Request: fold
Amino acid sequence: MDPVILYEDNHIIVAEKKAGVLSQQDSTGSPSMLDSVKGYIKKKYRKKGNVFLGLVHRLDKPVSGIIVFARTSKAAGRLHREFAERRAVKIYLALVENNGSAETGKWIERNDPLTRTRGRSEVGVIPGRKTQQAHMRFMVLAANSKYALLLVHIITGRKHQIRAQLGAIGMPVAGDQRYGSRLSCADESICLHGLYLSFMHPVKREPVSICTEIPGRFAEKMSIGGTLREKIRREVEPCSQFGSKV
Reply:
């Protein structure tokens, strides 16, 4: 599995993860992005022995999008703090089942209590379970009779946060049957994509901003032309100045 590299230097590598691929290997032994990028470095730079690569953040297996790796321990430590302190700006594109409840073109704030139970993230307080606040905002960019296309700016970084919060308001991510979608996708994917990521370079101390293309599985379900793409660009740009520490 050859990784799609979006940016690289001596300190970091930014790649695009495909849906259905693990961020980091688990007990199943399935291929992961971490292993793939390590193999890329080993081959390109003719490295002998083990290759150091730090995974800075994760994307769920059925989600595609931007993922960042550190090539040195110093870069790893600084990037972990950057993400933990919510200074990185993370914006996702989500295609959801349309229930007609959200107004198009308006940012909507969600700040919900989130509880982990039996492998799921549940919106609401569950007695006896640890609850964390999950903060995000989203905008409906376009909609048809079946789907709505959302831009999602995630402020906190809770596990399954976007999936759980959208599912709780009756707008589950298309294909995400764990959180209420009536649909399934053949390629182990759901229609959630890490579209844009901005963070401070751990060594150069200058902003790094990466944006990816819209996946084909989105365009199969909704027409995404030049006008809509330009709208996405206009909405993403101010988010980099929005400040993720809210």
About this structure: The chain has a mean pLDDT of 92. DSSP finds five helices and eleven strands in the chain. The first strand starts at residue 4 and ends at 8.
